Amino acid sequence: MSTTTARNETEASGVAVMPERRDLHFLPPADRIQDWHALGPHMTQFMNTLSLFFPAGERMFIDAVRSYRDQVPDPDLKKAATAFIGQEAMHSREHVEYNKLMAEAGLPADKLDEFVWDLLDWLRDNTPRSFPLSATIALEHFTALMGNALLDKPEVIAGSQEDYERMWLWHALEEVEHKAVAYDVYEKTIGRGPLAYLLRSGGMVSATVIFWPLVLAFYLRMTAASEACRKVGWRGHLKVANTLFGRPGIFRRLIPEWLGYFRYSFHPWQQDNSHHLAMIDKLAAEAEAAYDTTRH
Ligand SMILES: [Fe+2]
Ligand SMILES: [Fe+2]
Question: Is the pTM of the predicted complex or chain greater than 0.90?
Fold first, then answer.
């Protein structure tokens, strides 16, 4: 689907890509939780840190979209919103299991997870109803960009323990698949005018200045608590920094796309990366087979 086609379909029917809820389980092995990533224990803890934000974060996304769903006039978009909620609920469930492995390994996962829940509860209780939705579409932009980066450069995770790798690829794919749903709900209920633009830009500025410093602080806590990281020492941090900002520099490459969010006419499907979705069915079948084997 070309960029303009994806956007035109969104304009015409309300939905460019209809997401699908997939009830998949991953059960990654507990004994690899501190060193499952091919790039070593520091990269493992960087990804583990991102996982700590999902249970509470995805709960906020679900609540924000659900609180506006009944106001959506378009039946297809309503259906997509329901599928979005279903996908995020599955992600959250799997990341809760994943995060338990960190806590059981002696990492401060429970404490950090609780901090995110408290923060998001506070934001919900102390901001207007529209704020969680504007923060959701901003954070969904981040998850879609990071998911796309992983799908564009699978070599960044290739060779890792395969259940962890599969789980992250599944999450990345579904983030791409539903990347415009919350955004379309926002446009259809809050609008597309100057005020709606200011609110969504404010949501992005808030999400950026709150989320990324927390990621850094959590990552430092996790690596300090990990014996595997302590053994590697500071070179592990350099490796992560190089992967994200040097070569291949997956985050450095995201900066123009992050800035693109501030265009007045921005829409997530202006970047048409729907070709990645062709691999979802194969990945889901592999995940089901691996789960059956692990359970029996
Ligand atoms: Fe998700
Ligand atoms: Fe999402």
Answer: yes
